[in-house]
Amino acid sequence: MIGWTTTLMLAAVLPQYLIGSLAVEIRADFAFSDSQLGAAVGVSFALSALISPMAGRTVEWIGVKRGVILSAVVVTATSVAIATVADSAAAMIGLMALNGVAGGVGSPAYSTLLVSRVAPERHGTAFGMLTSSPQVAAFAAGLALPAVAHPFDWRVAFVAPAVLGLSSLVGLARLGLPSSAPRRGPAAADVRRLPRSVHVIALSTALASAAGIGMRSFLVVFAVSIGFDSSAAGYLLAATGLVAIFSRIGFGVLGDRRPGEPLLRAAALMLVCALGFVLMALGGDVAVVAGALLAGGLGWGWQSPLSFAVVSQNPDATAAAVGVQMAGFFAGALVGPLVLGVFAENGSYTVAWVLCIGLASAAAAVVLWAHRLAHPPRAARQATMR
Questions:
Q1: CA 85 to CA 83: how far, in whole Å?
Q2: In whole angstroms, how far apart are CA 104 and each of 26, 49, 51?
Q3: Distance from C-alpha of 12 to C-alpha of 304, rounded to nearest angstrom
Q4: Neighbours of 74 (CB within 10 A)
């Protein structure tokens, strides 16, 4: 169950990473500027952000089966369309917008599926693997440039998410998708009834994802601009994804073995991201490589403990809580590429990395605020009880 769900999440997010790593090759077929690249990635996350809270409430009401099926079908259809008929920047932006539907519907559905089918003592590992899917996507997208686009064609790479989407849906169907809706009605999933800490976590997620997704979207283009060849830049993106995979899964397993305070771990990892952006802003090949591995690799593991915290603190409204959290993630992922695209268009990457330092640092501070809300001081708790 964990494996197929993780694969479906991978299929949903892979196009968002492929388009960034293959932008140089796409430009050989039609005009596709940095700002249009930022718009294509950003609009995908924009639709996900708009849909996610509503999808979370809906999943709480009707169950996960329809959400999982819809996500898989949209992923497959949009990926096939990009691989076969996309012939302009406008077409790419439109298809990536449709891909955003899969992410918005899928995230709360996948999370609810894991909570209902995986033992609680394995939730940390399950969500570590689920949240590692985007990092697997980054790793695969980095390899797609030298391994697929160069010997074949960039369009071939977009066949992969279609195949993964269909195969994972078949695998989940064989294991048995839940066919009945939860007993709770729509009112039980009202986001206004969620703890305040969930909304604060969503804010921190927005800040951190704006920095991280923005960096990931332009890492290849930035590296090429400072002297890396395109293959080396692709391998750097792949390396950040590989490190992030181990980071997220590792902190997920740690969450099962030593529950501790996942929000504090998330805050620490966001500060690691900030340190990585400092190195990238300083420049130089070694500093850029080290900074990218910290900001997009080790530190990017923050989502694993953060997601674990949201799920563990809201066991009776998992989909609704995850929907709100992911709305923050997608909103940040929308703003990040758009803003960094403006700087990239003007060659001001140093300013972009300084902005990312501020975003990652602010995200860590907001997570600490969420931790305080979720764990009020003893005196405050006693006053509340009275």
A1: 6
A2: 26, 6, 5
A3: 18
A4: 21
Say if CB 179 and CB 63 are below 8 A apart.
Answer: yes
CB 260 within 8 A of CB 314: no
Give the domain range for residue 75.
Answer: 2-385
Q: Which of 62, 70, 137 is nearest to 98 (CA)?
A: 70
Q: Of 66, 72, 77, 52, give the one whose Cα is nearest residue 11.
A: 72
- More confident: 150 or 160: 160
244-302 pLDDT, tens digit each: 888 888 888 887 777 678 889 999 999 999 999 999 999 888 999 999 999 989 998 89
- Cα–Cα distance between 278 and 288 in angstroms, integer? 9
- Tell me, what DSSP letter sits at residue 227? T
pLDDT tens-digit series, residues 42-73: 788 778 778 777 766 666 666 677 778 888 88
Q: How many domains does the chain have?
A: 1
146 or 308, greater pLDDT: 308
> How far is it, in rounded angstroms, from Cα 261 to Cα 251?
12
**CA–CA separation, 240 and 136 (whole Å):** 10
CA-based nearest residue to 375, from 367, 327, 208:
367
Handedness of CA 50, 215, 154, 110 (dihedral sign): negative
Q: What's the sign of the alpha-carbon dihedral 157, 159, 161, 163?
A: negative
Cα separation, 48 vs 90, in Å, equals 19
- Single out the residue of 167, 169, 168, 147 nearest to residue 157, CA to CA: 147
pLDDT, average across residues 132-148: 77
Establish how many alpha carbons lie within 13 A of residue 95's alpha carbon, considering only the half-sphere containing its beta carbon: 23
**CATH number, position 372:** 1.20.1250.20
CA–CA dist 210, 331 (Å, integer): 8
CB 299 within 8 A of CB 275: yes
Q: Enter the DSSP assignment of 122.
A: G
Neighbours of 366 (CB within 10 A): 21
Q: Measuring CA to CA, which residue among 133, 117, 138, 185 is closest to residue 7?
A: 133
Burial status of residue 384 (CB atoms within 10 A of its CB: 0-12, 13-18, 19 or more): exposed
